[in-house]
Design brief:
The complex is a heterodimer of chains A (291) and B (408).
Chain A: H1 2-25, H2 27-56, E1 60-61, E2 68-69, H3 75-82, H4 84-118, H5 121-132, H6 139-150, H7 162-187, H8 190-198, H9 203-231, H10 235-240, H11 247-257, H12 261-284
Antiparallel strand pairs in A: 1-2
Helix pairs in contact in A: 2-12, 4-7, 4-9, 7-9, 8-9, 9-12, 11-12
Chain B: H1 10-28, E1 62-68, H2 84-91, E2 94-100, H3 103-111, E3 117-120, H4 122-130, E4 134-135, E5 159-160, E6 163-164, E7 167-179, H5 191-194, E8 204-207, H6 213-223, H7 237-251, E9 254-258, H8 261-270, E10 275-279, H9 280-288, E11 293-296, E12 302-312, H10 318-328, H11 331-341, E13 344-345, H12 359-362, H13 368-371, E14 374-376, H14 396-407
Parallel strand pairs in B: 1-2, 1-3, 8-9, 8-10, 12-14
Antiparallel strand pairs in B: 3-12, 4-12, 5-6, 7-10, 7-11, 7-12, 7-13
Helix pairs in contact in B: 3-4, 6-7, 7-14, 8-9
Classes of the chains: A mainly alpha (291), B alpha/beta (408).
């Protein structure tokens, strides 16, 4: 009995050693085993779903029974391109995303600079926590809080519409802009600022020629967050947008209300294309290499 | 997650394209069921032939439901609100509820074949019948069915050619609400929300869904009789265009569209909205918040909803499903669910069981004259629901696109 168990243990140890030795000798097998899980995730779940989206966009639905008709058709894209309303909605969405990004940048940069360069290490920790705290609260809660602020008897009283949407989205995504810029500024050695000052450069010139070029990749990283998050949002505009709609709403209406998955997929390729263009433009600036 | 890629190289794009092609190849050969719509009959279509249950047997021990939130409460939201546990004790059928948020979610859940019964609204029920997902219901096996209001039995959204496909759960009307301090003359017509020269510019509200097009069509039935609209859910191209034009014109006066009731309550309370379409439950909540509002059923009538419990054609627990359908329309449970959800019960005897004795009056449960003016939500389909055969009507997917266009 005990002898058998001991032999089993020995066998298991031997097997383990064998596997370890095999993996040690074969670096490629080791590498592929290490990478298979993340690659499967990236390939199947991430790119796979994008591919499924793209393929679905070329199908149609039987509107009564709700079944997918898996026959190739350009009709969805034809409707998308020929309808004025979709162009208007797409341009509006890009405008909102760009406005949110600019507003967040203007607010986040001085904030991040103060956190990284002016605050004491102790205060720095607290400031990071403060910036992160809003992320602990539910998105819906914050959006509804803004709804109350913006209502005509609220503190701001601006009423609902695109301005309200931009303000709310700017608030929601601000931490995503502050954190990358803060991280970028933290990596910027203080000595460079001192050197710039010693060479006679004043504040603005130091910012323009030293700080900005070195933190630009971080700004780009932040802008990708705020831009893409705003581009895909459909809940905030439902809550504070009054009567306006963005791309996300068109997608949502076609899935939720009409059960027209193919057309929704076709509409959903619009933000994907916009993001690809945006990333390509960013890549040209070389910012992605320095992230 | 839309996290930033470090580098979008050509390789990844090629990989995406290759995957896309593989997916096309993989799926293309598969089932390409076109789900051919059956030939139009007198009521629009002929459903697939499915037999109703002949006799009731022993319970199977459990039942899987697809329900609107609030339709199958087991005390988890409020310990006092529980009609699921008493059902389980009485029948031995354990209830598994899947809550759905939209009619389409319900429709898709039922098509998986994993559920036994569903609380379908009129904008899903016909599709469930046409696709053969639900079976006719043998109402003789449901003792409480006899007490259901006659005005709810064998209606176009819960029956086909005189065959019942479910038991009515409850109903409600979309009402016209206004702030009595801002709107001084009490309106009695939907005209107040469609008037191009509205004095309430920027403070009108409307329901944010394609189905709201029916509200415009309903108004046009009396405002522009020359259009010949007989049923607000059966619109040909010309009639749909008229409704769309009306809604586009209305948009200039709309402050916001609402889709969830908390938003509507808050908007009326703050005065951002002073007039627009609403539900009885919203009116009650707004009044509870001390806002001066009033509701009416306008002279044109209104749109509304009537939900139906239907049983799946391939139900694995049909006996328990029938027992549930009988339970949910039993006077006590029907009263509980109606009060919790805020709608009129379907069982006439439920009115004696409500905790608020004026409940049935508030929700006009016994008022057939009131509900005769309500056009319940129905899925618009290509076969005209009003019986016209010389034209093709616009279906819900066209309505959805029109709605996108209206919002601009």
């Amino acid at each position: 009995m005990t002898a058998g168990a001991a032999m089993g243990d020995a066998q298991a140890t031997g097997l383990r050693r064998g596997v370890a030795a095999f993996l040690h000798r074969h670096a490629r097998v080791r590498l592929s085993l290490l990478l298979s899980a993340p690659l499967a995730w990236l390939g199947l779940a991430y790119l796979g779903s994008l591919a499924a989206l793209f393929v679905t966009a070329f199908w149609s639905t039987d509107t009564f029974t709700g079944d997918l008709v898996k026959v190739f058709t350009w009709a969805n894209f034809h409707d998308l391109v020929s309808g004025d309303v979709y162009r208007t909605v797409a341009l509006r969405s890009v405008g909102v995303a760009a406005a949110v990004t600019v507003i967040d940048l203007v607010i986040a940069f001085p904030m991040a600079f103060a956190m990284a360069k002016l605050a004491s290490p102790r205060a720095q920790r607290w400031l990071v926590i403060l910036v992160l705290t809003p992320l602990w609260a539910s998105y819906l809660l914050k959006a509804y809080a803004w709804r109350v602020l913006l209502s005509s008897d609220g503190i701001l009283g601006w009423g609902y519409g695109l301005t309200a949407t931009i303000a709310t989205l700017s608030y929601l995504w601000l931490p995503y802009m502050i954190l990358p810029i803060y991280a970028g500024l933290e990596r910027l050695p203080n000595a460079l600022l001192d050197a710039s000052g010693d060479l006679g450069a004043r504040g603005w010139r130091t910012f323009r020629t030293v700080v900005w070029p070195l933190t630009f990749p971080a700004v780009v990283a932040g802008s990708i967050f705020t831009f893409s998050l705003s581009l895909g949002d459909y809940i905030t505009v439902k809550i504070v947008g009054g009567k306006s709609q963005l791309i996300g709403n068109v997608v949502y209406d076609n899935i939720g209300a009409a059960n027209n998955l193919p057309f929704a997929a076709a509409v959903a390729t619009v933000p994907v294309v916009i993001m690809l263009v945006y990333l390509a433009a960013v890549r040209r600036t070389g910012a992605l290499e320095n992230l | 997650m839309r996290s930033p890629h470090r580098r979008i190289g050509r390789h990844s794009l090629i990989a995406t394209a290759a995957l896309a092609l593989a997916a096309v190849a993989g799926c293309g050969g598969g089932s390409s069921t076109t789900g051919s719509a059956p030939a139009p009959g007198s009521t629009g279509f002929t459903p697939p032939k499915i037999e109703a249950l002949k006799s009731l047997g022993q319970g199977e021990g459990q039942v899987n439901l697809v329900a609107w939130a609030g339709y199958a409460e087991d005390g988890s939201n409020d310990p006092k609100v529980d009609w699921v546990h008493p059902f389980e004790e009485a029948t031995g059928c354990k209830v598994n509820t899947k809550t759905a948020g939209t009619s389409d979610e319900m429709f898709n859940l039922m098509k998986t074949g994993e559920y036994d019964a569903v609380s379908a609204s009129g904008d899903a029920s016909l599709r469930l019948i046409a696709s053969g997902t639900v079976a006719p219901v043998n109402t003789d096996l449901i003792p409480n069915y006899k007490d259901v209001f006659e005005g709810l039995k064998l209606k176009p959204w819960n029956s086909v050619n005189g065959v019942a496909y479910g038991v009515p759960h409850g109903r409600g009307a979309n009402l016209l609400m206004w702030r009595t301090d801002k709107v001084t003359t009490p309106p009695d017509s939907w005209g107040v929300v469609f008037d191009p020269a509205s004095p309430y510019k920027g403070h009108v509200t409307a329901y944010d869904s394609p189905i709201y097009i029916a509200d415009a069509a309903l108004y046009l039935m009396s405002a522009k009789p020359e259009l010949g609209i007989k049923d607000p859910y059966a619109l040909d191209d010309k009639q749909l265009q008229a409704a769309v034009d009306l809604l586009k014109q209305q948009k200039a006066n709309v402050g916001e569209y609402w889709s969830d009731y908390t938003k509507a309550v808050q908007s009326f309370k703050s005065g951002d909205t002073v007039v627009g379409t609403t539900w009885q439950v919203i009116a009650n909540l707004t009044e509870a918040e001390k806002a001066p509002v009033q509701v009416t059923l306008p002279k044109e009538g209104s749109t509304g909803w009537s939900d139906t419990w239907m049983v799946a054609a391939k139900a694995q627990h049909p006996n328990c499903a029938y027992k549930w359908m009988d339970w949910i329309i039993s006077p006590k449970a029907n009263a509980q669910v109606a009060e919790w959800f805020g709608e009129a019960p379907s069982n006439a005897k439920a009115c004696d069981e409500t905790s608020d004795k004026t409940f049935c009056d508030t929700y006009h449960a016994q008022d057939e004259a009131y509900f005769s003016k309500v056009h319940y939500w129905t899925t618009p389909i290509a076969q005209c629901l009003d019986g016209r055969t010389d034209v093709k009507c616009t279906d819900y997917s066209e309505w959805t696109r029109a709605w996108t266009e209206i919002k601009g």
